[in-house]
Amino acid sequence: MLKDPTKVGKIWFDGKMVDAADANVHFLAHSLQYAGTVFEGERSYGGQLFKLRKHTERLFSGADVLGFSIPFSMDVIDRACQQVLKTNGLVDGYVRPAAWRGSDKVGLSPIGASVHVAIAAWDWPSYFSPGKKMEGIRLTHSHWRRPDPQTAPTQAKASGLYQICTMSKQIAEEQGFDDALMLDYRGLVAEATGANIFFVINGKLHTPIADCFLNGITRQTVIDIAGLRNIEVIERKIMPDEIATADEAFLTGTAAEITPIGSIGDIYLKPGRVCQQFISDYSELTSGRSESLKV
Ligand code: PMP
User: Fold this and answer.
1) What amino acid positions are annotated as catalytic residues?
2) Which residues share a beta bridge with 189?
3) Distance 139 CA to ligand 1 centre (A)
4) Which of 34, 96, 184, 186 falls 20 to 30 Å from 21 in CA-CA distance?
5) Ranges of each domain in the chain
6) Class of 10-122 in CATH
7) How far is Cα 1 from Cα 124, in angstroms, rounded to an integer?
């Protein structure tokens, strides 16, 4: 059991396993000052990291978008993620790799800055409380909008993009909600603060086109499962006033897994058969139990 990964256990830091308390970064780190970290969130089920290579690939492509290269191979990072879990005695755990520019460059220009990678792991059984997960979480609307891809590197899982997500999440929780729905720069439905969104309308899945936010690995998995279940998936522009036409809705993400939504603003939804089907399929898939759902 690893409750506080900042104090207890081991962290992989630039190729070495160090005590968690020693895995520190100087406050002048370029990425801390200028929001240039890329990171991942991965889950292990029964000791196996689900879609590990896809997460590692996204970490590397994000670094590439931000203009730096990770000084390790993908194989090394994959092995390090597994090693961090094992060393900390975690079977079902959450793994957080991050790559950032160090403190050897203090100005705006990042050229020549060193690049660092660290990986921590901890217990994180459920992102939203299990009770809430059954009845459906409550979302409010965020007034922050996901930016135009020409304004920010929207396909990278980069820390700078999370500024508006953490602010939205804070306001939502302070007002008694679980999370917030964010629109994009055009006013279309985008996603929640750390998870993608799907609507069930007349037995079909409708989800926004991931053209200005993360095309989540769980989102892609849900689309694959829907294909195997012969459930049509329509990726399209979704206007906020269409939410009222949905029969069910759910969030998808590595941390959130499949989380049914009970309300969005003043629109109430009832988690039903389709949500339950995807929860159960996703759970079978991540546990490695399913033979028919290999996606
Ligand atoms: N959108 C945002 C903003 C996220 O932080 C996440 C979590 N990584 C997702 C979507 C879902 O991505 P994934 O399914 O790959 O975890």
Assistant:
1) 157
2) 183
3) 17
4) 34
5) 10-122, 130-287
6) alpha beta
7) 10
The runs of H, that is alpha helices, within 12-73 are: 30-34, 52-66
Tell me whether residue 232 is exposed, middle or buried, using C-beta atoms within 10 angstroms of its C-beta: 0 to 12, 13 to 18, 19 or more. Answer: exposed
Buried b (16+ CB within 10 A) or exposed e, 179-211: bbbbbbbeebbbbbbbbbbbbbeeeebbbbebb
Cα–ligand 1 centroid distance for 200 (angstroms): 20
Tokens of 195: 């998870």
Report the pocket of ligand 1 as residue ranges, CB < 6 Å: 41, 157, 165, 191, 194-196, 213-214, 216-219, 252-254
Q: Which residues contact 284 (CB under 8 A, 6 or more apart)?
A: 290, 293
Q: In this structure, what is the dihedral angle of CA atoms 242, 252, 168, 56, given to the nearest 10 degrees?
A: -140
Closest CA to 254 of 229, 227, 286: 286
Distance CA 190, CA 188 (A): 6
Beta bridge partners of 120: 96
Q: Which CATH superfamily is domain 130-287 in?
A: D-amino Acid Aminotransferase, subunit A, domain 2 (3.20.10.10)
C-alpha angle 193-198-202 in degrees, rounded to nearest 5: 155
Q: What is the pLDDT of residues 143-188, one digit of tens each?
A: 999 999 999 999 999 999 999 999 999 999 999 999 999 999 999 9
